[in-house]
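Q: My collaborator sent me two sequences in one message, no labels, and asked for predicted structures for both. Can we handle them in order? The first one she listed is below.
A: Yes, handling them in the order given. First sequence, followed by its structure tokens:
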Amino acid sequence: MSSHHSSESRYHGVAILLHWVLGAALIAVFALGVYMADLPFSPQRLKLYSWHKWAGMVILILSVLRLLWRLTHRPPALPVEIEQAMPRWQAVAHHATHHGLYLLFFAVPLIGWAYSSAAGFPVVLFGLLPLPDFVPVDKALAELIKPWHEISAFAMAALVLLHVAGALKHALIDRDGLLQRMSPFGK
């Protein structure tokens, strides 16, 4: 297959920037969440939880921007030769992964915000801007919500890994140049 694709098959620079910034933020906030989850109660743990919540809100804002960009700027079509070479199950997996990621871009931070609100720990963005409670303080509700934040975060991590695996397959096995569409280094 050809590894050359026209500029019409590349994503716009804004889409590329949002993709990589959101991807890096997701990895960082997930790693922080896993690290801090079992820490003993301490000022350090409270600080990390605050950072985790800030990052979640930034991810939510980036997700809104990414969705708005996507809705107002049509992404490039998959090159015909790649689309024709892709088995049906891969096409279904490709679309399901992207739709699942977009759903979880919103669900994970919103569930986290709901949990934090229900637990009585408000989100104060960057330590400066208090956000309204997403749900009323209710300890029983917090206990119901808490596992869903973790489950949805691990589901998103799994989809991110699946997305990366698909990208690596195109780069290392298919060698079809598909990664150039989202490369921050252009061409």
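Q: And the one she listed second?
A: Here it is, processed independently of the first:
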Amino acid sequence: MLNINASVSIPDHEIELNAIRAQGAGGQNVNKVSSAIHLRFDIHASSLPEAMKIRLLSFADQRISQEGFIIIKAQHHRTQAKNKTDAMLRLQALIRSAISIPKTRKPTRKTRSSVKRRLDNKANRGALKAQRKNIPND
């Protein structure tokens, strides 16, 4: 059971874990040990609340496929157990980010005095630069 928060948790049978061979350098051992973990989580078939599913599917995240699967590959550690823990923590963090609803931005307006200050400052800078110009000799 993967606990997301106090009210949301994911049963283990909804998370598919496969051990695969890790990529990259590692000597001879990397060719014979399957220490990397490939995690698949089907958003549509999960027991998550419907609002959370919609927010997850709307994310522009490369770990979420077009079919609605979260795919995480964990291969940072040397042992399969640590990679499994890492993959589960990354899934938990991704789903937790879908819990919080971002605040909608309310457009604000500049105050009249701040606009006046800015324009006065621009006029003063322009006048100062105008004084620096050469005066033609007649």
